Amino acid sequence: MNDTSIGIIGGADGPTAIYLTGNQDLGLAGNWILGGDSGGSAGQFAGFLAVLAAMVLLAYFIGNISPSTLLAKSRGLDIKKEGSGNAGTTNALRVMGKKAGAITLVVDILKGVVSVLLGDLICGGWCGMLCVVAVMLGHIWPVVYRFKGGKGVATAFGALLGLNPLLGLSALGVVLIGVLISRRMSVGSMLGALSFPVICYFLEPDFIYLGCVLAILILVKHRANIVRLFKGEEPILSIFDKEKKS
Question: How remote is the C-alpha of 209 from its chain's centroid?
Fold first, then answer.
Protein backbone atom coordinates (compact mmCIF):
# COMPACT_ATOMS: atom_id res chain seq x y z
CA MET A 1 0.00 0.00 0.00
CA ASN A 2 2.64 2.53 1.05
CA ASP A 3 6.40 2.80 0.63
CA THR A 4 7.12 5.34 3.35
CA SER A 5 10.27 6.14 5.30
CA ILE A 6 10.98 8.71 8.00
CA GLY A 7 13.74 11.29 7.74
CA ILE A 8 14.98 13.29 10.75
CA ILE A 9 16.95 16.54 10.73
CA GLY A 10 18.51 17.72 13.97
CA GLY A 11 21.55 18.03 16.14
CA ALA A 12 22.71 17.37 19.66
CA ASP A 13 19.67 19.09 21.12
CA GLY A 14 17.28 16.73 19.35
CA PRO A 15 15.34 16.67 16.10
CA THR A 16 14.30 19.98 14.56
CA ALA A 17 12.31 18.56 11.64
CA ILE A 18 10.78 15.25 10.70
CA TYR A 19 9.68 14.41 7.18
CA LEU A 20 8.21 11.45 5.37
CA THR A 21 9.37 10.22 2.00
CA GLY A 22 7.81 7.81 -0.45
CA ASN A 23 4.24 7.16 -1.48
CA GLN A 24 2.76 7.97 1.90
CA ASP A 25 -0.94 8.18 2.71
CA LEU A 26 -1.41 10.53 5.65
CA GLY A 27 -5.15 11.13 5.53
CA LEU A 28 -6.88 14.37 6.46
CA ALA A 29 -4.90 14.83 9.68
CA GLY A 30 -1.58 14.36 7.92
CA ASN A 31 -2.45 16.85 5.21
CA TRP A 32 -3.61 19.37 7.79
CA ILE A 33 -0.89 18.95 10.44
CA LEU A 34 2.11 17.98 8.31
CA GLY A 35 1.15 19.66 5.07
CA GLY A 36 0.79 16.44 3.08
CA ASP A 37 4.09 14.94 2.04
CA SER A 38 6.27 17.93 3.03
CA GLY A 39 6.79 16.88 6.63
CA GLY A 40 7.13 19.31 9.51
CA SER A 41 8.65 20.03 12.88
CA ALA A 42 9.02 17.44 15.59
CA GLY A 43 6.04 19.02 17.36
CA GLN A 44 3.88 18.74 14.25
CA PHE A 45 4.85 15.11 13.81
CA ALA A 46 4.04 14.43 17.46
CA GLY A 47 0.64 16.04 16.90
CA PHE A 48 -0.03 13.74 13.95
CA LEU A 49 0.96 10.69 16.01
CA ALA A 50 -1.38 11.84 18.78
CA VAL A 51 -4.29 11.97 16.32
CA LEU A 52 -3.33 8.56 14.96
CA ALA A 53 -3.27 7.12 18.49
CA ALA A 54 -6.68 8.67 19.16
CA MET A 55 -8.13 7.00 16.05
CA VAL A 56 -6.76 3.62 17.11
CA LEU A 57 -8.20 4.11 20.60
CA LEU A 58 -11.55 5.10 19.07
CA ALA A 59 -11.52 1.89 17.02
CA TYR A 60 -11.00 -0.08 20.23
CA PHE A 61 -14.03 1.55 21.88
CA ILE A 62 -16.18 1.06 18.79
CA GLY A 63 -15.25 -2.60 19.13
CA ASN A 64 -16.68 -2.49 22.68
CA ILE A 65 -20.20 -2.12 21.27
CA SER A 66 -21.89 -5.49 21.88
CA PRO A 67 -25.27 -5.89 20.15
CA SER A 68 -25.80 -9.43 21.48
CA THR A 69 -25.27 -8.23 25.06
CA LEU A 70 -27.68 -5.32 24.62
CA LEU A 71 -30.33 -7.45 22.89
CA ALA A 72 -30.12 -10.11 25.60
CA LYS A 73 -30.35 -7.48 28.34
CA SER A 74 -33.53 -6.08 26.74
CA ARG A 75 -35.03 -9.56 27.16
CA GLY A 76 -33.89 -9.96 30.74
CA LEU A 77 -31.04 -12.30 29.79
CA ASP A 78 -27.30 -12.32 30.33
CA ILE A 79 -25.78 -13.58 27.07
CA LYS A 80 -22.61 -14.59 28.92
CA LYS A 81 -24.65 -17.02 31.06
CA GLU A 82 -26.66 -18.47 28.18
CA GLY A 83 -25.65 -21.05 25.58
CA SER A 84 -21.91 -21.03 25.00
CA GLY A 85 -21.54 -17.82 27.02
CA ASN A 86 -20.04 -16.05 24.00
CA ALA A 87 -21.23 -12.53 23.11
CA GLY A 88 -21.27 -13.11 19.37
CA THR A 89 -23.50 -13.93 16.41
CA THR A 90 -23.56 -17.72 16.78
CA ASN A 91 -24.61 -17.65 20.42
CA ALA A 92 -27.14 -14.87 19.78
CA LEU A 93 -28.66 -17.10 17.08
CA ARG A 94 -28.84 -20.08 19.44
CA VAL A 95 -30.19 -18.20 22.43
CA MET A 96 -32.44 -15.50 20.92
CA GLY A 97 -33.26 -16.67 17.41
CA LYS A 98 -32.63 -15.62 13.83
CA LYS A 99 -33.61 -11.95 14.14
CA ALA A 100 -31.26 -11.30 17.06
CA GLY A 101 -28.54 -13.26 15.30
CA ALA A 102 -28.96 -11.20 12.13
CA ILE A 103 -28.89 -7.88 14.04
CA THR A 104 -25.77 -8.96 15.93
CA LEU A 105 -24.06 -10.00 12.70
CA VAL A 106 -24.82 -6.74 10.89
CA VAL A 107 -23.77 -4.48 13.78
CA ASP A 108 -20.56 -6.43 14.42
CA ILE A 109 -19.64 -6.19 10.73
CA LEU A 110 -20.48 -2.49 10.55
CA LYS A 111 -18.39 -1.55 13.56
CA GLY A 112 -15.38 -3.15 11.86
CA VAL A 113 -16.03 -1.33 8.57
CA VAL A 114 -16.60 2.06 10.26
CA SER A 115 -13.50 1.81 12.47
CA VAL A 116 -11.14 1.07 9.59
CA LEU A 117 -12.64 3.58 7.16
CA LEU A 118 -12.44 6.34 9.79
CA GLY A 119 -8.82 5.51 10.59
CA ASP A 120 -7.91 5.46 6.91
CA LEU A 121 -9.73 8.73 6.20
CA ILE A 122 -8.26 10.65 9.13
CA CYS A 123 -4.69 9.29 9.33
CA GLY A 124 -4.12 7.17 6.24
CA GLY A 125 -3.63 3.55 5.31
CA TRP A 126 -1.32 2.47 8.11
CA CYS A 127 -3.75 3.85 10.67
CA GLY A 128 -6.51 1.86 8.97
CA MET A 129 -4.43 -1.29 9.35
CA LEU A 130 -3.85 -0.63 13.04
CA CYS A 131 -7.58 -0.02 13.47
CA VAL A 132 -8.29 -3.53 12.14
CA VAL A 133 -6.48 -5.00 15.14
CA ALA A 134 -7.79 -2.35 17.56
CA VAL A 135 -11.47 -2.94 16.79
CA MET A 136 -10.87 -6.68 17.09
CA LEU A 137 -9.27 -6.24 20.51
CA GLY A 138 -12.19 -4.06 21.55
CA HIS A 139 -14.67 -6.73 20.48
CA ILE A 140 -12.83 -9.63 22.09
CA TRP A 141 -11.76 -7.87 25.30
CA PRO A 142 -14.14 -4.90 25.81
CA VAL A 143 -13.26 -2.79 28.83
CA VAL A 144 -16.91 -1.74 29.29
CA TYR A 145 -17.92 -5.40 29.73
CA ARG A 146 -15.05 -6.39 32.00
CA PHE A 147 -13.00 -7.72 29.08
CA LYS A 148 -15.54 -10.44 28.22
CA GLY A 149 -16.58 -10.20 24.58
CA GLY A 150 -17.06 -12.27 21.45
CA LYS A 151 -14.68 -14.18 19.23
CA GLY A 152 -14.32 -11.43 16.68
CA VAL A 153 -15.03 -13.24 13.39
CA ALA A 154 -17.82 -10.94 12.14
CA THR A 155 -15.95 -7.84 13.29
CA ALA A 156 -12.77 -9.07 11.60
CA PHE A 157 -14.71 -9.56 8.37
CA GLY A 158 -16.09 -6.01 8.55
CA ALA A 159 -12.66 -4.55 9.32
CA LEU A 160 -11.11 -6.41 6.39
CA LEU A 161 -13.88 -5.16 4.10
CA GLY A 162 -12.98 -1.62 5.13
CA LEU A 163 -9.30 -2.28 4.51
CA ASN A 164 -9.58 -4.18 1.22
CA PRO A 165 -12.95 -5.55 0.05
CA LEU A 166 -11.36 -8.35 -1.99
CA LEU A 167 -9.32 -9.40 1.03
CA GLY A 168 -12.42 -9.53 3.23
CA LEU A 169 -14.50 -11.43 0.66
CA SER A 170 -11.71 -13.95 0.04
CA ALA A 171 -11.46 -14.70 3.76
CA LEU A 172 -15.26 -14.96 3.94
CA GLY A 173 -15.21 -17.47 1.10
CA VAL A 174 -12.88 -19.76 3.06
CA VAL A 175 -15.07 -19.42 6.16
CA LEU A 176 -18.23 -20.30 4.24
CA ILE A 177 -16.61 -23.36 2.66
CA GLY A 178 -15.54 -24.58 6.10
CA VAL A 179 -19.03 -23.99 7.54
CA LEU A 180 -20.82 -25.76 4.69
CA ILE A 181 -18.53 -28.79 4.90
CA SER A 182 -18.45 -29.11 8.70
CA ARG A 183 -21.82 -27.46 9.54
CA ARG A 184 -19.96 -25.74 12.38
CA MET A 185 -19.17 -22.03 12.51
CA SER A 186 -16.07 -22.63 14.61
CA VAL A 187 -14.47 -24.79 11.93
CA GLY A 188 -15.11 -22.21 9.23
CA SER A 189 -13.75 -19.43 11.43
CA MET A 190 -10.56 -21.29 12.22
CA LEU A 191 -9.98 -22.28 8.60
CA GLY A 192 -10.42 -18.64 7.63
CA ALA A 193 -7.89 -17.61 10.29
CA LEU A 194 -5.35 -20.22 9.18
CA SER A 195 -5.64 -19.20 5.52
CA PHE A 196 -5.58 -15.48 6.20
CA PRO A 197 -1.79 -14.89 6.17
CA VAL A 198 -1.62 -16.62 2.77
CA ILE A 199 -4.45 -14.46 1.40
CA CYS A 200 -2.69 -11.35 2.75
CA TYR A 201 0.53 -12.35 0.99
CA PHE A 202 -1.19 -12.11 -2.38
CA LEU A 203 -3.75 -9.33 -1.83
CA GLU A 204 -2.42 -7.04 0.93
CA PRO A 205 1.26 -7.83 1.66
CA ASP A 206 1.75 -4.74 3.83
CA PHE A 207 -0.81 -6.16 6.26
CA ILE A 208 0.66 -9.67 6.51
CA TYR A 209 2.28 -9.24 9.95
CA LEU A 210 -0.78 -7.63 11.50
CA GLY A 211 -2.80 -10.27 9.64
CA CYS A 212 -0.89 -12.98 11.49
CA VAL A 213 -1.76 -11.23 14.77
CA LEU A 214 -5.41 -11.20 13.69
CA ALA A 215 -5.32 -14.92 12.87
CA ILE A 216 -3.71 -15.77 16.23
CA LEU A 217 -6.37 -13.78 18.11
CA ILE A 218 -9.15 -15.73 16.39
CA LEU A 219 -7.48 -19.09 17.01
CA VAL A 220 -6.84 -18.26 20.68
CA LYS A 221 -10.50 -17.35 21.17
CA HIS A 222 -11.51 -20.70 19.63
CA ARG A 223 -9.34 -22.88 21.87
CA ALA A 224 -12.40 -24.25 23.71
CA ASN A 225 -13.98 -25.12 20.36
CA ILE A 226 -10.82 -27.00 19.39
CA VAL A 227 -11.08 -29.12 22.53
CA ARG A 228 -14.76 -29.87 21.87
CA LEU A 229 -14.02 -30.80 18.26
CA PHE A 230 -11.44 -33.35 19.36
CA LYS A 231 -13.94 -34.75 21.85
CA GLY A 232 -16.72 -34.83 19.25
CA GLU A 233 -18.81 -32.47 21.40
CA GLU A 234 -18.87 -29.35 19.20
CA PRO A 235 -22.53 -28.61 18.32
CA ILE A 236 -23.58 -27.97 14.75
CA LEU A 237 -25.27 -24.73 13.75
CA SER A 238 -28.99 -24.65 14.44
CA ILE A 239 -29.75 -23.98 10.76
CA PHE A 240 -28.25 -27.40 9.97
CA ASP A 241 -29.87 -29.21 12.93
CA LYS A 242 -32.67 -31.31 11.44
CA GLU A 243 -33.90 -32.49 14.85
CA LYS A 244 -34.48 -28.92 16.04
CA LYS A 245 -36.22 -28.04 12.79
CA SER A 246 -38.60 -30.98 13.13
Answer: 14
